[in-house]
Batch of 3 targets.
Target 1
Amino acid sequence: MATGSRVLIGLAMILIISGELLVPGQGTCQGDIEGLMRECAVYVQRPGPKVNPSAACCKVVKRSDIPCACGRITPSVQKMIDMNKVVLVTSFCGRPLAHGTKCGSKSVIN
């Protein structure tokens, strides 16, 4: 992945978790921001194939509140992150999103 794309996706993930690009009026989410950026950005970026995440990415996913972050993704962030890939990553890492969870504009159907 190009460094520029990784930086943009990482920045988007940081802003999502920190609350800067989230739905207004909602708080922040807990998690390892730098770890998500470093280890998982490549697995959720647009465009590209769906690829199972690394063990390092899964370790970070397990420490982060992904459902919280999912519920706060704005349309501008969604242009950079593929929600289907987010669902794949969380499922692969043993933290599947519950049926009906809204992740960006996508509702999870298990």
Target 2
Amino acid sequence: MRCVIARFPFDLVKSDVQESMKGIKPEPVTGESVIIGRRHYPVKQVGEVITGQDRRDFSAGEVTRALARLGFTCRAVPAPVVPPVLTPLETASALLGEPERV
């Protein structure tokens, strides 16, 4: 499949991408990720390996679109979990705790 990453054209094949990533240890995932084999890789790491370019030269979106078109499972950044905001009365009640049962 022909795709453009950082203004450069690349002919990518799913099996070639899998072969390129063999033996490469995944970095910790902090943003968008892709599943290759049984491993989760950051898309920027995969983009750097398959294109030979510096990670600052392309966006995660460019690589994600290319990998998704090849049939890889891509995952977006998980939404942060925001704890519920308690009212002052609920906060005081939580601090006091449950009454003891006799």
Target 3
Amino acid sequence: MFERLLVFFANQKLRWLGRFAYYLLILLLLFFMYGFNDASAGSYIYNDF
């Protein structure tokens, strides 16, 4: 049983799918944290320069 799990998680397609989902989740979380505003909607870092 344990050997079958090792073979399952060693699958390249599964590893690629896992990494894709992981980075997509990070990207979506960043979008939701900072919002979908344009540059004129909020404070922009270069306004004071």
